[in-house]
Write a structure and sequence with these properties.
Elements lengths: L2 H10 L5 H26 L4 H21 L7 H15 L3 H11 L2 H12 L1 H20 L5 H20 L12 H5 L17 H10 L2 H32 L3 H29 L4 H21 L6 H28 L6 H31 L1 H52 L1
């Protein structure tokens, strides 16, 4: 979403007012959240090698339409419609990635591998700023370049993705990853068990009426309120409450995103190596970290050294991006492979459509009417709510881990039994 990057130019040129900026930005965000779920139902039955590049290429086309078709940006309504379409086709990106992760990486290694992939959110967020700035610099500040220059890069990446992605091991003649690594999936469905069900009935069974998926989706609401509630309002809070400059506020914003890379990688490693695949325990641990540094950031007295505020922001960002990644990973881990993308998309639907919207509009409303103290109190309550909901997920994840370990032991025993005659 490159609208915030050029918002000041649009405002200075008198094209759109602040309300219009908010409507256009939210159109892309809401569309992305909706698409992440609904397009996942298509992605789970499609070839990831085609699905992801097509979505990325269509997003590039939407950006070019904004840049080169004057009617697209002539009114708030037309601009919002194009950005809604843009957000929708961007939502075609996560589900095929989830599909590839589930099919190519087994349970015991998926935390670390998913963490590496998930840093793309942060790296991409930083890269789009650089690309937009490069475009603006090259064209002398023409806002359209913040759309067409990243679009060209996206088209190149779409071609690269088509030539490098492979859908499943079976598509290239390899055995399932669980069989190759002797590492069974946590959730499996027997062949033929659901032949009598339509695909929508399968989604209802495994996702919509799955208690764990609903709990994870609700948890994601609070996690996204925290993520965007702190991130989006950091420049304003530092300026109004601590008297920081606009540049300092933007630096805090960037540091929060940068910290997310370290937090995401740490969460993936810890969940695999320390908690042995228990994503819930990892998530709770990271949420406790969020609570500690959020309260320190909130209660920091005016006049405190600016670098210390940056330290607090860094650790909030590092700790919050752990659960951001882990909830999607849990949805992949705790669902059957044929609906894995849809399950993760379901949690994303709640996170973006409800959580991010509450963060952008709800936090602003609370600050406007009750002040920063009440706003941070509400954000702290979100931490508590997320921890409580994750605690409710814990028993089921422990059960699935026990089932996984028993299957893994059984597979290893079978392999040892086959090798025994050869030794004799």
């Amino acid at each position: 979403n490159n609208i915030p990057l050029i918002a000041k130019i649009l405002l200075d040129e008198g094209m759109i007012d602040k309300v219009g900026i908010g409507l256009i930005a939210n159109a892309a965000l809401i569309a992305y959240g909706l698409s992440k779920f609904f397009m996942a139902t298509v992605s789970d039955r499609s070839n990831a090698r085609l699905f992801l590049p097509i979505g990325l290429a269509l997003s590039a086309v939407a950006n070019m339409v904004v840049a080169w078709v004057p009617a697209a940006s002539a009114t708030v309504a037309s601009f919002a419609i194009v950005m809604f379409i843009n957000g929708w086709v961007q939502g075609m990106g996560w589900p095929p990635c989830g599909r590839v992760l589930v099919h190519w990486f087994s349970t015991n290694e998926r935390g670390w591998k998913t963490a590496i992939w998930n840093t793309a959110h942060n790296v991409g967020g930083i890269a789009v700023g650089i690309a937009a700035a490069a475009g603006l610099g090259f064209t002398g500040g023409q806002w359209q370049s913040a759309f067409w220059f990243p679009a060209i890069i996206a088209l190149v990446v779409a071609v690269f993705a088509f030539f490098t992605i492979r859908d499943t091991p079976a598509s290239v003649g390899l055995p399932p990853i669980e069989e190759h690594r002797n590492d069974p999936a946590k959730v499996e469905v027997a062949d033929g068990e659901e032949e009598h069900l339509s695909y929508w009935q399968i989604i209802v069974k495994h996702v919509l009426l799955n208690r764990v998926m609903v709990l994870l989706a609700l948890t994601n609401v609070f996690v996204y309120v925290l993520r965007y509630g702190v991130l989006s309002w950091t420049p304003v809070f530092l300026s109004e409450h601590h008297g920081a400059s606009v540049t300092a506020g933007i630096a805090g914003f960037s540091l929060f995103e940068l910290a997310g890379i370290f937090g995401t990688l740490a969460a993936g490693w810890v969940s695999d190596r320390v908690f042995r695949g228990n994503r819930t325990m990892t998530g709770i641990t990271f949420m406790v970290g969020v609570a500690i540094f959020l309260v320190l950031y909130w209660l920091a007295p005016v006049g405190i050294p600016y670098w210390l505020l940056m330290v607090y922001l860094f650790f909030i960002g590092a700790f919050i991006y752990g659960p951001v990644m882990l909830i999607g990973l849990q949805a992949l881990d705790m669902s059957a492979r044929h609906v894995a993308g849809t399950s993760a998309g379901f949690t994303g639907l709640f996170g973006y459509v409800i959580g991010a919207t509450l963060a952008s509009t709800g936090v602003g409303w609370v600050v406007q009417h009750f002040g920063w103290g009440v706003a941070f109190g509400a954000l702290t309550a979100c931490v508590v709510a997320a921890i409580v909901l994750l605690t409710l997920v814990m028993p089921e994840e422990k059960r699935l881990i026990a089932v996984h370990d028993a299957k893994a032991k059984q597979m290893q025993n079978s392999i040892d039994a086959e090798r025994e005659p050869q030794r004799v």
